[in-house]
Design brief:
Rossmann fold, single chain, alpha/beta, rod-shaped, 5-stranded parallel beta sheet, two-stranded antiparallel ribbon, 2 domains
């Protein structure tokens, strides 16, 4: 027998070599295809992320420029806005003279909103001064009035038409009593169609108003609140909003401003019923010393 390398190849060897060559060619072609696909994928990845990054960067820069411009425009607009309305400084009414109440004929013929009820108003005020009812039902005045307070209320109702400033009585207790008498009279005229809104910028002052009205009108704590007859406010903004809502539903707001308030917000003056107690400088200084 001769060796394989010395003689011609047998058929099975040729077949094996042929298969190996074909397999190598197939693998070479497959490798080439995979390399080509790899290159394509790499190019697509590079294009995708570079393009996406560029687009994102452009959008971020665009939004940044817009935001900066908007904030600058807002700042310029804010600088041009009058943020705080000009306050109205109150002075005691020149009509208030303790010994000189308005003459009945002059106030009755004045044509004010209470001119038709002038006799009722004078009668109630005189009765509370001469013969007070200390056991009256709730919302009726249970305290007596002095002559100065009677003149003040007669002037406020019949000369000022229920909207104006009056000089403080010198103490919060005297002012609360005057306001309580006004509330009682308004109850005679309007029934339960009005709500009293009291403005005082300190909780201690509002506490004095609540206790004074409870005592003067026989009220309870349940009579103070948004759904009750008296609402207490420390800031004018919420008070004005409440007054607007009352008018929208057909009711009347009666606004009372404590003498400690140095000025009155202009929107308060638009309403038909408001009583502002104007303190003199000495009373304001004493008030500040107590705080």
């Amino acid at each position: 027998m001769s060796e394989i390398g010395d003689g011609p190849a047998v058929p099975w060897q040729e077949l094996a070599l042929t298969e190996l060559k074909q397999r190598r060619e197939e693998l070479t072609a497959e490798i080439g295809s995979l390399e080509q696909r790899r290159d394509q994928l790499q190019q697509e990845i590079d294009r995708h992320f570079v393009g996406q990054a560029d687009g994102l960067s452009r959008r971020v820069r665009g939004f940044q420029d817009y935001l900066v411009g908007a904030l600058q425009e807002l700042a310029r607009s804010a600088e041009q806005l009058p943020l705080v309305p000009e306050p109205v400084t109150l002075q005691p009414s020149p009509l208030d003279q303790p010994a000189a109440a308005p003459a009945p004929a002059a106030t009755s013929d004045g044509g004010g909103p209470f001119s038709a009820d002038a006799d009722l108003i004078r009668g109630r005020l005189k009765g509370w001064r001469e013969a007070p009812d200390f056991y009256a039902e709730p919302w009726r005045l249970r305290r007596s009035l002095d002559g100065d307070t009677e003149s003040l209320l007669q002037d406020w109702f019949l000369s000022q038409g229920g909207r104006g400033a009056q000089p403080s009585g010198g103490s919060r207790g005297r002012n609360v009593l005057a306001a309580a008498a006004a509330i009682s009279l308004l109850g005679d005229l309007y029934g339960d169609r009005f709500q009293t809104l009291v403005l005082a910028s300190e909780p201690e002052r509002l506490g004095e108003w609540r206790r004074g009205l409870q005592d003067s009108l026989g009220l309870s704590r349940e009579d103070f609140g948004p759904g009750s007859g008296v609402v207490l406010f420390e800031q004018p903004g919420p008070l004005v909003e409440r007054a607007d809502r009352l008018e929208e539903r057909g009711d009347l707001p009666f606004i009372v401003v404590d003498a400690s308030e140095r000025s009155v917000a202009i929107p308060i003056l638009q309403f038909p019923l408001w009583l502002v107690f104007a303190a003199d400088p000495r009373e304001l200084r004493d008030e500040e010393d107590l705080l």
